[in-house]
């Protein structure tokens, strides 16, 4: 293929409003999905932490699941300090075997 044709195709794609509209809608959808996922993770972290704190202990497997599958990904996505504070409190609990 001729280089001028390739450049014209690329310019047409990036110059089209359809491409930019698709890209904008994609990022909005991803943002909404991230907010929803963060909200669900937040609710589960709070619920689990409060449950363990009320109980006064946590099993090793419960703590691992909370940390590995919920808290770490939540924190990596920019989670807030409320969940961090409760997780810190749970990490100080006595660990019991089931």
What does this 3D model show about the protein?
By secondary structure, the protein is mainly α. The chain has one domain. It is built from four helices and two strands. A two-stranded parallel ribbon has the order 1-2. The model has no long low-confidence stretch (mean pLDDT 85).
Keywords summarizing the entry:
mainly alpha; two-stranded parallel sheet; 82% helix
- How helix-rich are the residues, as a percent range? over 70%
Multimeric organization: single chain
Q: How many distinct folded domains? A: 1
Q: In percent terms, what proportion of residues is strand?
A: 5-15%
Radius of gyration: 23 Å
Largest sheet: 2 strands, parallel
Count of alpha and pi helical runs:
4
Identify the strand order in the major beta sheet.
1-2
Provide a compact summary of the structure.
With 98 residues, the chain is mainly α. The chain contains four helices and two strands, in the order ααβααβ.
